[in-house]
Amino acid sequence: MKHTGGCHCGRIEYEAEIDPEDVIICHCTDCQTLSGSAYRTVAFTAPDGFTLTKGHPTVYVKVADSGRERQQAFCPTCGSPIFAAPVGEGPKVYGIRVGTLHARTALPPKKEYYCDSRLDWLPEMGDAADMPG
């Protein structure tokens, strides 16, 4: 299903092909830090299902403990996190930051990941299934 979104200041806009069944909450410590919150809610695109329609994000490459590199894209003006994606060539699945989607209320999360990092004061997320991290 096609969705649109953008950053807080309007400098970045995009279109994304998203399966509403592929929306998650991630409790890993990287997502906590990069989102500035207790967790991050992510909607995954179809391979290469993401198109910028306005602006160009700034990209930071995060290197995980495993050595895997992942692009973290955000608006250079307002700082809104937009997506994460693999580094390099080839088809990419983008992890869209749900808060930047215009129809975010239509995309409730279906799964939770890295639940051992869930902050103790945070309740479980109802129907979302716990998945190993």
Short note summarizing the structure:
This protein has 133 residues and is mostly beta strands.
Which features would summarize this protein structure in a list?
9 strands, 5% helix, mainly beta, Metal Binding Protein, Guanine Nucleotide Exchange Factor, Chain A, 133 residues
Notes on the structure:
The protein is mainly beta. It has a single domain, classed as Metal Binding Protein, Guanine Nucleotide Exchange Factor, Chain A (Beta Complex). The protein has one helix at 29-35; strands at residues 2-6, 13-26, 40-54, 58-63, 69-74, 81-86, 95-97, 111-113, 129-131. Strands 1, 2, 3, 4, 5, 6, 7, 8 and 9 form a nine-stranded mixed sheet that branches. Strand 5 and strand 6 form a beta hairpin. It is globular and about 40 Å long.
The chain-level structural class is: mainly beta
Low-confidence stretches: none
What is the H/E order?
A: EEHEEEEEEE
- How far is the N terminus from the C terminus? 27 Å
Tally of individual helices: 1
**How would you characterize the largest beta sheet?**
9 strands, mixed
So, CATH architecture?
Answer: Beta Complex
Shape: globular
Counting structural domains, the number is: 1
Write the layout of secondary structure elements.
Elements: E1 2-6, E2 13-26, H1 29-35, E3 40-54, E4 58-63, E5 69-74, E6 81-86, E7 95-97, E8 111-113, E9 129-131
